[in-house]
Amino acid sequence: MVATRQVPVKDGDVLILVGTMKGLFVLRSPGGKRTSWDLGGPHFPGHNVYAVAYDSRDGRSRILAANHSFHWGAVIQSTDDFGKSWTSPESSGVKFPEDAGVSLKQIWQIRPGRSDEPNVLYCGVEPAALFESRDGGGSWSLVRGLHNHPHRPRWEPGGGGLCLHTILPDPADRKRLFVAISTGGVYRTDDGGKTWQSRNQGVRAEFLPDKHPEFGQCVHKMVQHAARPERLFLQNHWGLYRSDDGADSWQDIARGVPSDFGFPMAMHTHDPDTVYIVPLESDQYRCTPEGKLRVYRTRDAGRSWQALTRGLPQKNALETVLRDALATDTSDPAGIYLGTRSGQIYGSRDEGNSWSLLMGGLPPVVCVKAMVVGESKKPARGKRTTPRQAPKTRRSASGSGRRSAPASGKARTSRRSRR
Q1: What domains can be seen in the chain, in order of their start residue?
Q2: I want to staple 168 with a disulfide (CB 3.0 to 4.6 A). Which of 178, 227, 287, 320 is the partner?
Q3: Which of the pair, 146 or 383, is modelled with greater confidence?
Q4: Whole-prediction pTM value?
Q5: Per-residue CA distances from 268 to 29, 153, 233, 235 (Å)
């Protein structure tokens, strides 16, 4: 029997929740110093944990985990005491109704709803569908408006399956919600989920004869900042994009990166102009380009990108970082964390300027989430909403920087496989 190690947790501690192919692990830094880390776990030993979430709304401290076992299949379990006890898997309730014609394979994402709806939760699953809970996870219902969309029969699975992996409730509009599907693209509802529209204008599907179809793009990750909800950033299967109009249109921002193929994307918690990505070589060779583990950061909304390398291995580092294995915390300066398929956790406590290895020897990392315990109980701090000074750039009529020539090292040799 595998023993699960518990770590004591207090307000002010920083936690990193690490979902792996063999269970859920918890890294804790006492007092939020982020200089030393204790390791707890594994919770659900031997289970694949594809999604985790931390829900601090309404003063709670709840962890939700989607784990997959041979006995129970894919379920969501939660804990209000940092893993000392978990809800029973029978009560997870995420399953397709009999008339849906499909059955649940995997839970890819758990997302708390808006702060003014503290009992609303969402989860994205495979085959691609959205579920909603309005009682804090006690029960779940299929969002029929998306499931019955006429595009759904023509969505095709990517390399990782037909998954709905990104859910973004709009903080400015209770009825607006964005989702991303591999391979379906971006969809948006403006009426609380009754109807949905594809929102992929300008995003290419390199693997299709029609490079810019209405739908069918293989989106890998999408992020949004609460201070500027009309702006979104997107990491595609080949392509980096920004939208300034709520996903009505997208502009290419892939300039200055070694490859525009990759999976993860993370938003800075205080600055709506700052985003982090980890490029990979190509869809055929899904490892870091040149064997260098580099996180790229933009501080000007994608007009330029900077390679962050200090403390990260720059030789023989053939790593893979998956779509949910890059995360930021709410500290100031913000902490940035990533997990690799080789079982390593790297962290930065200065917004990515320098990095250190926090933990090694874990099972393959699937997802990473970071938080400051008790943060929601403190008075709200002023958020950084003024864009950082950007370098002068010629602007197109749409307002985005004019696209420059691709970097010489950009890898686009093979684009047939999808994820």
Answers
A1: 14-377 (2.130.10.10)
A2: 178
A3: 146
A4: 0.89
A5: 20, 36, 12, 15
